[in-house]
Amino acid sequence: MRTDDLPTPEVWDTSLPDWKERIVNRRPLIPDLPLFDAVAEKALAIFKRLRLPDVIGNPTFAEAGDDWIFDFVRAVFGSYDPVRKVRMIREFLLLVPKGNAKTTYAAAIILVAAIMNERPHAELMLIAPSQKIAKRAFSQAAGMIRLDESLSAMFDPKAYSNEIVKLDEVVPSKIQIVSADPSVVTGAMATFTLIDETHEFSKMSKAADVFAEIKGSLGKRPDGFLLQITTQSKAPPTGVWKSELTIARKVRDGEMRRSMLPVLYELPPEMAKDDGWRDRRTWGMVNPNLNRSVTEDYIAGEIEKAEIDGPHQMALIASQHLNVEIGQGLNADRWAGALYWAKNAVPGLTFERMLDECDVMVAAGDVGGADDLFGFSAIGRHRKSRNWLVWCWAWCLRPVLELRKSIAPKLEELAQLGQLGITDTAAEQVEAAVEICCRIRDAGLFPKQAGIGLDPHGVAALVDALEEERFELGKHIVPVGQGYKLSGAIKGVERRLFDGRMKHGGQELMTWCVGNAKAEQRGNNVYVTKEAAGVAKIDPLIALFTGAILMDGNPEPAGNLDDFLSDPVLVAR
């Protein structure tokens, strides 16, 4: 075959449009690819020869493995063109539940990559989610070397640094096994990078920038690859993980062409919803190593235990052992309104459209502390349908990105979408909130009284700024009690969403907040609190409940500015 006749990356179609049928029937999730068979078989032979260091009898992967992982190894290494020294598939994403020997397979694959590597002084990096798992991955790789006489002569494992040096005068190389630490990962120029648990990696400070560096290095090393082996996240996907998962699904579904092979062991959405994942018949579909490294009885026992421990534990079992994506449909102690939130989204609904189509509007705010979000909402009543229309905003101070590192990627994502403002001062947030109120007033939509509802705590600066714009405290600006005092609004919003009488713009900001919301029943009252939601934020949702208190009074618009400013106070709060 002439070099000109060899396939190029553009020709390799890695989509799998029939993936749902395949996963239900437990068929391979790797499409037919024009692999370089000699390279693929050599790599697979090396992989099968490796021994499991932590299993009784130290069986080889050939004895203990299964076809699904053998097919994956063939695809990873068989995509390398040995003539042009170019890898036809540059990225791989294997989504497989906990208990399917991910870390062990990761250690074996990075070891095979070092043996197969042809680049002198190549760097290979395995990034683990924690130091503990990095140590385990190193121990697995070092154990495989120790159990093979020829590999013991080829490699020098250094336990103190988690490094494995390939002792080759012609093609020396080095494997580094590290935890997801930006000080270690940033600036690395690895030829081969393997990430264990991408959803944990995405929580790392500036994860998106580090990912860009890793992928950028592949442009200079066409023989390299980026391989991700991960379970689903324990919370709604966010940041880099959400981006990578979205791209992988689009490639799998044929909606995007990319030099990536996604192998995603997840149930079709229609099978996962309504607790469909609890059906034992589905477990083997997403657990390719079922009854090898993880057993059906073990999963059943974990589910049985979770039924005692509560919804939160059940959600963890579903995400970790069955790859069910955590979201509005699966969230421990979820707020009931979350079940109906998505169906009430109206594409194209914006704040500007609300100004045109509503006959009255109110605004409300939930002003957090310096390490919190400032949530703000506007609720309008459509002049024809009488449905409530909703739009929300949020702001945070820049230090929040450091103080709340676990949600920093999500905040940055929302900022890029233009749905969250990251500001240097609190004054900028106040100014933005006041501008929203002025736009509602100038459109003649504020009610004659009680048009701005605020949590009475921590709002002095906002009230001062509103008064400068001739909004009066006690007349236009009213305090709205929080906690149990919002219970009626919470239940009312739930019913409006259920009946389809509340519509919103489908903002990602609110999808996130609603997904974070957890409800507590105390007596006859329902609480949706920041404390219950933990570090995951719900402030704009609380602002929505606060505004609902005002809208429940069925307000009438004041009309023009003169009417707005001259009407007497009718309601004392």
Automatic annotation (TrEMBL):
Domain Terminase large subunit-like endonuclease: 270-546
Record-linked InterPro entries: P-loop_NTPase, TerL_ATPase, TerL_nuclease, Terminase_largesu-like
Molecular-function GO terms, alphabetical: endonuclease activity
Residues of the Terminase large subunit-like ATPase domain: 83-233
Pfam family, one: TerL_nuclease
PANTHER family, per the entry: PROTEIN YMFN (PTHR41287:SF1), PTHR41287
Protein name: Phage Terminase
Organism listed in the record: Paracoccus denitrificans (strain Pd 1222)
Lineage start: Bacteria, Pseudomonadati, Pseudomonadota, Alphaproteobacteria, Rhodobacterales
